[in-house]
């Protein structure tokens, strides 16, 4: 080896194209494992056959831990170990093709070269490169045969996250931004800041070839609990001291803020924020990942596959059970094989970074095989009982007398939980329902058999549960039925009109005392503030149906509403000489719409105007209006615009310019808020041409 420092040509452009890493804006080589890449270097004396290469990652690299490899030049590439094949030589430069094994440890490597002829000279550094998972390579644990799915679940930077409630599903755009500046470095920092790494860095790095290991570690690192992770959760409805969870438009800002603050948790997140950030990190590292929304999602704390809800005699939803049913919950699915469980459990694996319950002593969840969840195999790793309950738990509704502390079962239901399980379509901005991948048809014999199987595996069939309702309680039949119907639009800024419909199911007259309440809630259905209450007494003739209109004026609910725009309306019906009937509805109010138009054709490197139009729908002025816009390949960073106050019913138009820098279909993610309306969101597909 010559004394001069070799200069390395990493063939960044060609290697990035071959390895699907062109979207990273890095000066460092980023390649995927199990696939060859070319490098050239000069300053090396002949003959090349006497060169030995050393690749190393992590602290104390060793061959035993597969964190170090030494390899010479060979005539053909190896399938399952590090190897180098000579491509060409010139008077002072050598080009070689390096192949890595499909199960190599991912992360940043140092590459050096050493001459084996003429004594033992010290290795000379060629520089560093980053190795990622490779879903395009059939030998990789994350291999995905469908190329369109690889594009969506690894390379797509825009996503749609579904929210609202099962009666009214809405979707909002999110900018995952996994290829933005420095995001890859931040993802690697997350691994180095995990509890596992702090406790035993050498062993931790030696496991970084395994997607199930990394998925579990990162599900813990995305939340701030235990390890000073990325996002601090807050479900109180009060988000002082941070950004409200609904106001983020992408993961990039969150991850950058975490690093800039010296790795202090970013305030605040709720489930979709944790899921979106985990999607960004896993896609960045090359593990195919998507967000999944489960509507009417159970949070079963005590692991009995049952969620208990309590109401007082006035119909107020009491916060006395740790269990709850969320209007929706968002988690992740990542695609990889399960060598620990066997090939039938390969495919989508559930990971959940929202800190709900501890697993192994820390807030992490998964990977749980989706196949195992569908088949009720709740004894398989990891955290299957919790995930199974999220989509399958039975619900028990109790009346709790605060004076006597006596609880009475109102009714139980086995078909409420786990509905309209949703994700974004591949290559389209549509919703796909994946409920059938999580469970057999609700109420079918097969579904009930699997539920029994899961209960049995959890030891719930044989154990006497003093808190469970008796068969007699479960079988009792009510004398009346009731429901809340919506009457007209349900928009923030308008009065809320409902109809309580009560029906006498018996052929004798019935007298009913009805206690009604309305509370604002967060999306977890946690009551925050009382909005309204009323009581009526009703006599229903035999088989009679009666309708009672209810009006909750905007002025009464406006101050109490959380940023989730959710109201829970309850009527507890005390039937004379009969069992109580609970009528309930969770209402998601719609925000007014915001309209966005691109004025003209979007062309690469040419300015184009974008117009955002908002009409204030209420009879009072709105102030504190701000607009936030982001979109990969359209805008660098985040655009924030302060807008003037809007008078009653006034329309405002705001224009800004953008200069796209890549062709293809791109998305603008737009967020508007003011003092009366929080988190009005929309997104716009922009087709950028040359």
Automatic annotation (TrEMBL):
GO terms for molecular function: metal ion binding; protein-glutamine gamma-glutamyltransferase activity. Pfam families: Transglut_C, Transglut_core, Transglut_N. The keyword Nucleotidyltransferase does not apply. Keywords: Acyltransferase, Calcium, Metal-binding, Transferase. Its EC number is 2.3.2.13. Residues 263-355 form the Transglutaminase-like domain. It comes from the Eukaryota. Transmembrane segments: none annotated. Its cofactor is Ca(2+). It catalyses: L-glutaminyl-[protein] + L-lysyl-[protein] = [protein]-L-lysyl-N(6)-5-L-glutamyl-[protein] + NH4(+). It is an enzyme of class 2 (transferase). Ca(2+) binds at residues 392, 394, 442, 447. The keyword Phosphoprotein does not apply. The active site is at residues 271, 329, 352. Binds 1 Ca(2+) ion per subunit. Gene3D superfamilies: Immunoglobulins (2.60.40.10), Transglutaminase-like (3.90.260.10). Belongs to the transglutaminase superfamily. Transglutaminase family. This is protein-glutamine gamma-glutamyltransferase. The gene is Tgm3_0.
């Amino acid at each position: 080896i010559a004394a001069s420092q070799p200069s390395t040509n990493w063939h960044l452009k060609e290697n990035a194209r071959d390895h699907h890493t062109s979207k990273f804006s890095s000066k460092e080589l980023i390649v995927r494992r199990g696939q060859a890449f070319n490098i050239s270097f000069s300053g090396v004396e002949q003959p090349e056959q006497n060169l030995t290469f050393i690749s190393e990652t992590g602290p104390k690299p060793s061959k035993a831990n597969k964190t170090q490899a030494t390899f010479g030049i060979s005539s053909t590439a190896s399938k399952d170990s590090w190897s180098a094949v000579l491509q060409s030589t010139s008077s002072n430069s050598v080009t070689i093709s390096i192949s890595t094994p499909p199960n190599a440890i991912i992360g940043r490597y140092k590459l050096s070269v050493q001459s084996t002829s003429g004594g033992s000279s010290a290795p000379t550094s060629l520089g560093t490169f980053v190795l990622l998972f490779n879903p395009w390579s059939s030998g990789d644990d994350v291999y995905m045969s469908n190329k369109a799915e690889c594009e969506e679940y690894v390379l797509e930077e825009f996503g749609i996250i579904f929210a609202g409630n099962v009666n009214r599903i809405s979707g909002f755009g999110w900018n995952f931004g996994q290829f933005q500046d420095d995001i890859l470095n931040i993802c690697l920092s997350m691994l180095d800041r995990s509890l596992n790494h702090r406790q035993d860095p050498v062993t931790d790095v030696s496991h970084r070839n395994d997607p199930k290991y990394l998925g579990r570690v990162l599900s813990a690192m995305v939340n701030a609990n235990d390890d000073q992770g990325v996002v601090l959760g807050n479900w109180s409805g009060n988000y002082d001291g941070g950004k409200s969870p609904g106001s983020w438009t992408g993961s990039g800002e969150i991850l950058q803020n975490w690093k800039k603050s010296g790795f202090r948790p970013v305030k605040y997140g709720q489930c979709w924020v944790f899921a979106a950030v985990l999607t960004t990190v896993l896609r960045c590292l090359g593990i195919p990942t998507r967000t999944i929304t489960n509507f009417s999602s159970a949070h079963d704390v005590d692991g009995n596959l049952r969620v208990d809800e309590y109401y007082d005699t006035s119909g107020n939803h009491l916060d006395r059970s740790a269990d709850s049913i969320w209007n929706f919950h968002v988690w992740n699915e990542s695609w990889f094989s399960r060598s620990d469980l066997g090939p039938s459990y390969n495919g989508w694996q559930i990971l959940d970074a929202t800190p709900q319950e501890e697993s192994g002593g820390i807030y992490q969840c998964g990977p749980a095989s989706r196949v195992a969840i569908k088949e009720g195999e709740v004894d398989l790793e990891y955290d299957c009982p919790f995930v199974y309950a999220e989509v399958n738990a039975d619900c028990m509704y109790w009346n709790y007398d605060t004076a006597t502390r006596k609880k009475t079962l109102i009714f139980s239901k086995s078909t409420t939980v786990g509905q309209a399980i949703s994700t974004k379509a591949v290559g389209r901005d549509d919703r796909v329902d994946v409920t059938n991948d999580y469970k057999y048809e609700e109420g079918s014999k097969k579904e009930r058999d699997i539920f029994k199987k899961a209960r049995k595996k959890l030891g719930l069939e044989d154990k006497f549960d003093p808190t469970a309702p008796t068969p007699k309680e479960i079988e009792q039949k009510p004398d009346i039925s009731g429901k809340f119907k919506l009457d007209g639009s349900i928009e923030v800024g308008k009065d809320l009109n409902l109809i309580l419909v009560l029906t006498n199911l018996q052929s004798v007259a019935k007298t009913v005392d009805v206690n009604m309440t309305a509370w604002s809630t967060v999306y977890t259905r946690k009551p925050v503030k009382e909005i309204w209450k009323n009581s009526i007494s009703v006599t229903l003739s035999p088989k009679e149906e009666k309708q009672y209109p209810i009006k909750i004026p905007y002025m009464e609910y406006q101050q109490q509403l959380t940023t989730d725009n959710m109201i829970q309306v309850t009527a507890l019906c005390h039937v004379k000489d009969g069992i109580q009937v609970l009528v309930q509805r969770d209402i998601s109010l719609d925000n007014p719409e915001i309209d966005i138009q691109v004025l003209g054709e979007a062309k690469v490197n040419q300015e184009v105007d974008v117009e955002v139009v908002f009409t204030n729908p209420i009879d009072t002025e709105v102030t504190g209006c701000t607009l936030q816009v982001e979109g990969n390949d359209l805008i660098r960073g985040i655009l924030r615009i302060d807008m003037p106050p809007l008078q009653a019913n006034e329309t405002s138009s705001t224009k800004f310019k953008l200069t796209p820098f890549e062709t293809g279909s791109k998305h603008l993610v737009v967020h508007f808020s003011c003092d009366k309306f929080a988190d009005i969101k929309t997104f716009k597909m922009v087709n950028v041409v040359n």
